[in-house]
């Protein structure tokens, strides 16, 4: 639930949201309580059917459901796109196949955040801000992208840009340093050594 609340905090009351891979549409239900309209989309029909069950009258008013394997037709760039709970390459595939160029995208990918940042820039999306979320002892990286061009350092592409929770960022980085050092005790990997050096010398 921490992830949903964090995503919601980056969405203003006047936005409309498209949640691709909506699962149980919990984000849409959370937004509905604030009077925010959303489209809950998923590739699996049974997920949509289950998500529609036991909706309150308020939720029915603010949530539209659609079956789609990516960005559904009928949306435009003014809608805020949420891509959460999926891998980096799935996120990139969805965007590469989309006919819409969004003004704002919120992601929580499961892996390869450095690749996500670099590839999103190639697609014309730029990192606005980030936040580390800790949920059930796991760390998640929320990234907000927009279309305002910015330049980023090698360090920022690896660790992130404009982090909002430096305490959790430091905690996550220390976890990664310990994890990578255990690997380096068994094998000498130059790329991993460079990553550890960047993490160790990062200025919070």
Notes on the protein architecture:
The structure is a single chain. With 204 residues, the protein is of the alpha/beta class. 41% of the residues lie in helices and 23% in strands. It has helices at 2-9, 26-32, 45-52, 57-62, 88-96, 113-122, 154-159, 166-184, 190-200; strands at residues 17-20, 38-42, 63-67, 80-86, 104-109, 126-135, 138-146. Strands 3-2-1-4-5-7-6 form a seven-stranded mixed beta sheet, with helices on both faces. Strand 6 and strand 7 (138-146) form a beta hairpin. Helix 1 (2-9) packs across helix 2 (26-32), helix 5 packs parallel to helix 6 and helix 8 (166-184) packs antiparallel against helix 9 (190-200). The protein is elongated, with a radius of gyration of 18 Å. The mean pLDDT is 95.
Offer a concise description of the structure.
The protein has about 200 residues and is an alpha/beta fold. It contains 9 helices and 7 strands.
What keyword list fits this structure?
single chain, 204 residues, alpha/beta, seven-stranded mixed β-sheet, 23% strand
């Amino acid at each position: 639930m921490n992830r949903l609340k964090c995503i919601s905090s980056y969405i203003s009351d006047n936005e409309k949201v498209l949640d691709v891979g909506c699962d149980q549409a919990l984000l849409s239900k959370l937004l509905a309580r604030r009077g925010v309209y959303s489209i809950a989309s998923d590739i699996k029909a049974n997920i949509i059917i289950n998500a529609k069950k036991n909706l309150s009258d308020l939720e029915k008013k603010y949530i539209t459901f659609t079956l789609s394997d990516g960005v559904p037709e009928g949306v435009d760039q003014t809608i805020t796109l949420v891509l959460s709970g999926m891998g980096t390459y799935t996120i990139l595939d969805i965007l590469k196949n989309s006919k819409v160029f969004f003004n704002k995208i919120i992601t929580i990918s499961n892996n390869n955040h450095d690749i996500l940042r670099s590839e999103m820039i190639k697609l014309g999306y730029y990192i606005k801000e980030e936040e580390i979320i800790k949920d059930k002892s796991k760390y998640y990286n929320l990234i907000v992208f927009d279309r305002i061009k910015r330049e980023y350092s090698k360090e920022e592409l690896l660790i992130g840009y404009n982090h909002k929770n430096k305490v959790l960022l430091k905690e996550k980085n220390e976890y990664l340093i310990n994890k990578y050092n255990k690997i380096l005790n068994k094998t000498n990997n130059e790329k991993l050594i460079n990553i550890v050096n960047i993490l160790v010398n990062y200025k919070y």
